[in-house]
Design goal:
binds protoporphyrin IX containing FE, Cytochrome p450, alpha+beta, 11 strands, 3-stranded antiparallel sheet
Length: 455
């Protein structure tokens, strides 16, 4: 490794992909800094890469093989043990981490909660958060703002308002602090932990079982108990819907602990990922002022001065394409990992039980055999979504374990991005280009500094 590629002026910030082969301690240690640097340049050109670093692993970039792992043979490729070790302390055996029957009944119970109708009804919460975010940007006119920090605030408002709103048991800022602390801890993990940790790597489980986490769970339990005994007026939120829900097959309902673990899952899985999408989208708009201007013209024609609502989304196709293209270039879940249970063959390669199968979404989305000029920002690629091969574009995964919150996230991203573009012009801050760093999610190192002007 060591050699990095020069970033050309006409492509937005990218991770310099290492060009040497994996398998050397030196490169693994480098991975402590940035997992994406470990994805060799080859990963954007080959269908599969395999190696042994303590454990046998394979990286899959071939859409057919991805379909096999994520959809056709999902039982043979459960989420990797490490994913579970990392997430379980915070979110228990909830929807995100459970497998088999334990997963299935929770998915059946939660699926109606995320129906199109229920998510559309939560639009006003998103519009309100967009208004408040616009007010904070207005107060910062003429200055450089950390768009990531701002978007984390906005998306946390949305997710906490649709999970634990209305009660007095839930201290929003304490929960936000506990979750940020937890995400900060996960940032200390590396590819070593994901590919197969040697014994000396601290067990992630122990790292996360702090008092902040216990306190957060206690507060969530109280908020659920409170809601169970007193009706909340207005549109049902995710907690109301999940409280009322039951598994259509068995009639089983969630206990307080199961409700709490799933709601905390929605917060952990949903808020930073959406904030990342929005801050990378604002960065890309600043990077390409012509597209930003086109987006603004579209939004203004539909909204004039008001904030966007769910009903506007159908009239904002370019904003949606900007979001889609952002998720291609900077997929927040930049790679997924699975542990093979059975002997199998993928792209002609032997897979043995216990092998780690890595799905490097970042490399898939920039693969030369799947995309023209892959590093370029070009929302028009999504003008006809049907033209994109399904397993070549996986920001939300696919198959039965596909993100349950995808339409929630897309609705929120379009509403907030449209509202902000209508009112502000975003510019790059010289000398402060964001650097994508991959830990568990793909994050900008430090911040996304953007200049904010009246549009
Ligand atoms: C842009 C924002 C988001 C991105 C990029 C994203 C990405 C993903 C991905 C890639 C997966 C599949 C993981 C795997 O197969 O290993 C996933 C699963 C999941 N996501 Fe999201 N997500 C986002 C927003 C949300 C939101 C807003 C929520 C909830 C409100 C949410 C809740 C979940 C849950 C519960 C799962 C597990 C589903 C299951 O296994 O049945 N996500 N997400």
């Amino acid at each position: 490794m060591g050699k990095t590629e020069t970033v050309t002026a006409d492509v937005p910030a990218r991770v310099p992909l290492g060009i040497e082969r994996l398998g050397i301690w030196g490169s693994l240690l480098k991975g402590r800094r940035n997992v994406l640097e470990l994805i060799p340049e080859l990963a954007t050109r080959a269908p599969i890469l395999s190696g042994t670093t303590g454990k046998r692993w394979h990286m899959l970039m071939d859409p057919e093989a991805l379909r096999h792992v994520l959809r056709d043979r999902v039982e043979d490729y459960p989420k990797s043990i490490v994913t579970k070790l990392i997430l379980e302390p915070a979110i228990g055996n909830s929807l995100f981490v459970a497998e088999g029957a334990e997963w299935l009944w929770q998915r059946r119970t939660a699926a109606p909660v995320f129906s199109h109708r229920n998510i559309a009804a939560l639009g006003p919460v998103m519009t309100h958060a967009a208004e408040r975010s616009a007010a904070r940007f207005a107060a910062a006119l003429g200055r450089s703002v950390d768009a990531f920090d701002e978007m984390v605030t906005a998306t946390f408002e949305v997710i906490s308002d649709v999970t634990f709103s209305g009660g007095d048991a839930f201290d929003r800022s304490a929960v936000h602090k506990a979750i940020e602390g937890y995400i900060g801890q996960t940032a200390k993990l590396s590819v070593l932990d994901i590919i197969g940790a040697p014994a000396w790597v601290p067990r992630p489980g122990r790292m996360f079982a702090g008092p902040g986490m216990r306190n957060m769970k206690r507060m969530a339990d109280q908020a659920i108990e409170q809601r169970r005994t007193s009706d909340r007026p207005g549109i049902p939120d995710l907690l109301d819907l999940l409280l009322a829900g039951e598994d259509p097959k068995s009639g089983r309902k969630m206990t307080v602990a199961e409700l709490r673990d799933n709601l905390l899952t929605f917060i952990v899985a949903g808020h930073e990922t959406t904030a990342l999408t929005l801050s990378w989208a604002l960065y890309l708009c600043a990077f390409d002022p012509a597209i930003q201007a086109e987006g603004r013209a579209e939004v203004r024609a539909v909204l004039g001065e008001r904030a966007a609502t769910t009903a506007d989304i159908a009239q904002l196709p370019l904003i949606r394409r900007i979001v889609d293209e952002t998720l291609r270039l900077y997929p927040p879940a930049a790679f997924l990992s699975r542990t093979a249970q059975k002997a199998d063959t993928l792209c002609g390669r032997e897979i043995r039980p216990g092998d780690t199968v890595v799905l490097p979404i970042y490399a898939l989305h920039r693969h030369y055999s799947l995309w023209t000029d892959p590093d370029r920002f070009d929302p028009s690629r999504f003008a006809n979504p049907k033209a994109i091969p399904r397993f070549a574009y996986l920001p939300f995964g696919d198959g039965p374990r596909i993100c349950i919150g995808a339409s929630f996230a897309l609705q929120e991203a379009v509403i907030i991005l449209a509202t902000l573009l209508a009112r502000f012009k975003f510019t790059l801050t010289p000398g402060k280009a964001p650097k994508p760093v991959m830990i568990l999610t793909l994050r900008p190192e430090g911040a996304v500094w953007l200049g904010v002007e009246t549009a």
